[in-house]
Amino acid sequence: MSIYIDPAVATSLRGFEMPEKLGFGKVMAPVMFRAVCQDGCWSPGQLVPYAPLALDPAAKVLHYAQSCFEGMKAYRMQGGGVGLFRPERNAARMAHSAERLCMPAVPESLFMDGVRAVTAYCANLVPANSGESLYLRPFLMGTQPDLSVSASSSYEFYVIASPSEAYHPGNMRLWVEREDSRAALGGTGDSKVGGNYAASLQSIARLKARGYDQSLWLNPGNRRTVDELSGMNFFAVINGELHTPALNGSILEGVTRDSLIDLARELDYPVREREIDIDELLELVQSGRCEEAFACGTAAIVSPISVFGDGEREYTPAQAPGPVAQRLRAALLDIQEGRAGDPFGWMQAVEVADPSER
Ligand SMILES: *Cc1c(COP(=O)(O)O)cnc(C)c1O
Asked: What whole-number distance in Å separates Cα of residue 226 and Cα of residue 293?
């Protein structure tokens, strides 16, 4: 790794006190990674103290939303050391998101330098209890100060990190969102961009007022088949088989989704990726043939769904949490925390850095 380590990093790390209560994504690690791209040319990365950014008020990101991000975790592994889970998938997805917004891809080597450097220097900040982790947030944005509508000529890439507790949303009450869409057909649904989240917030505010937790988004083209949640993919267990919506351009391809599909097949659950009609799904829940449903993503891993609300009606899966969700969650966490073997080669160990050696 050929990155510059600011000498002030050691001081920042020494002065950092881990609060008793972490929450999720609330406490920021005292260092961050930074790299700049000017006219398509990336400068070498730097590890620097965590600090506010100086942005020109005319920076394109603030007006035209040229920005994308990733969410991933560094885990404390049984037997010592710290590991990243399939980081190359996040690098590839960020390149895809960047391309969609006409931004230069962060080269995989630079992305890996960033997540590895932050993890290596913050290894002592990876909390130790099962389910806890160092949550990593890489992000890229267009910084050129220019109000004309065109792609920025300059970009900044950062990796920040947050020592976090296990994220337990509990049993989720989903609201079937039949009005709004989080992403348009031909839009940015399969890219991890902040705009998708902004577009989801009004729906979430409405459903919270009605006692629900999350929107279940339908496909923006047909408004009839299930896409996903705002930040998690969707699974249903139907007659003992695992069903998940097939990727269709508006669904974000989750690394957790992909990993659960592999794990489920390994555990001999049949998996079907298909279009799932919402009315058919609700009927299957009603009749008890859909025994359980859950959402998945890096933050929560697997979150059981306890209720589907649709207009005035509620549909309740027989089991929440159900046995399939619990088994898959445990199997994935066992790999991520090094208690089980790693048959798919998903974990990448990170060598711990000693900041006092600089
Ligand atoms: C990030 C995200 C997911 C989950 O992806 P993971 O890689 O599993 O964390 C699912 N849906 C949306 C819309 C997302 O932004």
From this structure: 13
Sign of CA dihedral 214, 220, 223, 227: negative
Distance 287 CA to ligand 1 centre (A): 30
Contact by Cβ (8 Å): 215, 200: yes
Cβ of 231 closer than 6 Å to ligand 1, yes or no, is: yes
- The verdict on whether omega for the bond into residue 107 sits within 30 degrees of 0, i.e. cis, is no
The pLDDT tens digits of the residues spanning 234-282 come to 999 999 999 999 999 999 999 999 999 999 999 999 999 999 999 999 9
Cα 181 to Cα 278: distance, rounded to the nearest angstrom: 15
Ligand 1 pocket test, pick from 73, 232, 244 with the greatest ligand atom count within 8 Å of Cβ, gives: 232
Average pLDDT score over residue span 129-142: 97
Nearest atom in ligand 1 to the alpha carbon of residue 259 is: 8
Rounded-to-integer distance, Cα 225 and Cα 274, Å: 10
Q: Where in the chain is the domain with CATH 3.30.470.10?
A: 4-167
Six-digit token pair at 182? 């989080």
Look at ligand 1, atom 13, and give the residue with the nearest C-alpha. 231
Question: Which CATH class, in words, describes the domain spanning 172-320?
Answer: alpha beta
Confidence category of residue 355, pLDDT binned at 50, 70, 90: confident
Say if CB 295 and CB 317 are below 8 A apart: no
CA 25 to chain CA mean position, Å: 12
Residues of the chain with CATH 3.20.10.10: 172-320
What pTM does this model have? 0.97
CATH assignment, 4-167: 3.30.470.10
Write phi, then psi, for 294 (nearest 5 degrees): -150, 160
Are the beta carbons of 16 and 125 closer than 8 angstroms?
Answer: yes
Percentage of the residues of the chain whose pLDDT score is greater than 90: 95
pLDDT for the residue 357 = 67
**In angstroms, what is the span from residue 257 Cα to ligand 1's centroid?**
8
Residue 16, CA distances (Å) to 13, 46, 219 in order = 5, 20, 45
Q: Give the model's confidence band at 79: pLDDT under 50 very low, under 70 low, under 90 confident, else very high.
A: confident
